[in-house]
Specification:
10 helices, mainly alpha
């Protein structure tokens, strides 16, 4: 009898929860090694999902500060075999640039995923909101950006 028989959960669900817990508690010095170990799981989709949640949590914590750049370089080198994870880190860097008013290119935002466009439309710079109000990929993104612009014009 294995753990999944006892808990009634498939093994990958148990591993996913375990990975999330490990990644939540990992020390900075061990983060890259832990991410590599998780990505070595035979269920590639599940492993990438766990690491994606971790990257989102860490990037959200770090993106406004100077520690983000070194962390992002480290994680980019760690996840190079995954186009999904590499792209998410690139998009976090674009989000950071928009939020901190660093140089960025409008075309990068227009070709970004729905995830980044919606995140940006929810409260970024006026320039980003204008771009997304006119050219966001979905009606939801365009509406969210337009509403953000209207809120800004009221103040």
């Amino acid at each position: 009898m294995n753990v999944s028989d006892i808990l009634g959960e498939p093994d990958e669900h148990i591993r996913f929860a375990t990975y999330l817990d490990e990644l939540r508690r990992v020390a900075e010095a061990d983060e890259a090694a832990t991410v590599r170990r998780v990505l070595a799981d035979p269920d590639r989709t599940m492993a990438q999902s766990a690491v994606l949640r971790h990257l989102d949590r860490r990037a959200d914590d770090l993106h406004l500060g100077p520690a983000y750049e070194e962390w992002c370089r480290s994680m980019t080198g760690t996840v190079t075999g995954s186009a999904l994870l590499t792209r998410r880190l690139q998009e976090w860097s674009l989000y950071r640039a928009i939020t901190l008013r660093l140089p960025w290119h409008p075309d990068d935002l227009l070709v970004a995923t729905d995830w980044l466009q919606l995140k940006t439309a929810a409260g970024a710079s006026s320039a980003a909101l204008e771009i997304l109000a006119g050219g966001g990929r979905t009606k939801r993104i365009r509406s969210t950006a337009t509403a953000g612009l209207k809120r800004r014009s009221m103040y």
